[in-house]
From TrEMBL:
<dbReference type="Pfam" id="PF05118">
    <property type="entry name" value="Asp_Arg_Hydrox"/>
</dbReference>
<dbReference type="GO" id="GO:0016706">
    <property type="term" value="F:2-oxoglutarate-dependent dioxygenase activity"/>
</dbReference>
<dbReference type="InterPro" id="IPR007803">
    <property type="entry name" value="Asp/Arg/Pro-Hydrxlase"/>
</dbReference>
<protein>
    <submittedName>
        <fullName>L-proline cis-3-hydroxylase</fullName>
    </submittedName>
</protein>
<dbReference type="Pfam" id="PF05373">
    <property type="entry name" value="Pro_3_hydrox_C"/>
</dbReference>
<feature type="domain" description="L-proline 3-hydroxylase C-terminal">
    <location>
        <begin position="184"/>
        <end position="280"/>
    </location>
</feature>
<dbReference type="InterPro" id="IPR008035">
    <property type="entry name" value="Pro_3_hydrox_C"/>
</dbReference>
<feature type="domain" description="Aspartyl/asparaginy/proline hydroxylase">
    <location>
        <begin position="29"/>
        <end position="174"/>
    </location>
</feature>
<dbReference type="InterPro" id="IPR027443">
    <property type="entry name" value="IPNS-like_sf"/>
</dbReference>
<dbReference type="InterPro" id="IPR037037">
    <property type="entry name" value="Pro_3_hydrox_C_sf"/>
</dbReference>
Length: 289
């Protein structure tokens, strides 16, 4: 796992509560890449390419990102963004809440033209939700509030919140023209303090018996529950020690065993879409046949 802790800030609970109240009051809308998630997934852009509060799509932008109307309504988070981080390289800042939901394993930035090493995504949990986890390749982590993480979104990752308890977070994206040192994202050099030990989740061993049980879902799969099975399979690696991407291989195998060619094709397409290649604005349907 290349994802790691960059530093930590002490969050002011009183000031944060006011901002969280505003974020909760913003209506929930359909998200970009909603096909990646089920349940409650709400992104609110604070800074983005256009300065428009409804623009939720990450894209390359010349210069620095523009504050949206939401940024003005969350003074504490605005202060964190502006005092902790360097504005020049800021490309997007958004809050992301996930409740009783899973974000399926995927890689980001595959729809962008440039070398993925130019992109640097940070992630900070604002509220502790003990049942919320992130995965990156072979590791599952529980992020603690205030920890500033480099999230290696260019490699396979997923997220889950098994509970109804909000997992509100602040996700900030930077991009550089060429090589850079990760400490360059910090305006306040005292915050940069890498090397802290993360809270890594100990998972159960994954056996052949588990695999056989999963593949026996071929007796259950239908076009009408194809999407549900994808989300179910995407959850397995948070509990058992398998790679997040295995979910797609199982789905393809289950569809083959069920002997439905359209499901096989769709399973292969979603694996390709999430993990390998997609064009900007490409969407994918798990429910149309
Ligand atoms: Fe992602």
């Amino acid at each position: 796992m290349r994802s790691h802790i960059l530093g930590k800030i002490e969050l002011d609970r009183t000031r944060l509560a006011k901002d969280l109240g505003y974020l909760a009051s913003v209506p929930t809308v359909e998200e970009e890449y909603d096909e990646f998630s089920n349940g409650f997934w709400k992104n609110i852009p604070l800074w983005n390419a256009t300065g428009e509060g409804e623009d939720r799509l990450y894209r390359d932008v010349p210069g620095s990102a523009i504050a949206t109307e939401h940024a003005a309504r969350v003074p504490y988070l605005r202060e964190i963004v502006q005092t902790v981080f360097v504005g020049d390289r800021l490309k997007m800042a958004r809050t992301r809440n996930l409740k009783n939901a899973v974000v399926i394993p995927h890689r980001d930035f595959v729809e962008l033209d440039q070398d993925v090493d130019r992109y640097f995504r940070t992630f900070m949990v604002l509220e502790d939700s003990p049942q919320a986890f992130h995965s990156n390749e072979d590791t599952v982590i529980h992020m603690r509030p205030g920890e500033i993480w480099f999230l290696d979104a260019a490699t396979v990752h997923a997220a889950i919140n098994f509970s109804e308890h909000s997992r509100q977070s602040l996700c900030i994206d930077f991009a550089f023209d060429g090589g850079f040192d990760e400490k360059e994202i910090f305006a306040d050099p005292t915050v940069y303090d890498p090397g802290a030990t993360p809270e890594i989740v100990t998972r159960k061993p994954f056996t052949q018996e588990h695999r056989d049980r999963i593949l026996s879902l071929s007796k259950v799969i239908e076009r009408q529950n194809f999407r549900d099975l994808l989300f179910l399979l995407s959850k397995v690696h948070f509990t058992y020690d398998v790679h997040p991407g295995d979910a797609y291989d199982w789905l393809v195998e289950i569809a083959k065993k069920a002997d439905d060619e359209k499901m096989v094709v769709k399973a292969e397409q979603i694996r390709e879409f999430a993990m390998e290649a997609r064009a900007l604005h490409d969407r994918f349907s798990l429910t149309s046949w």
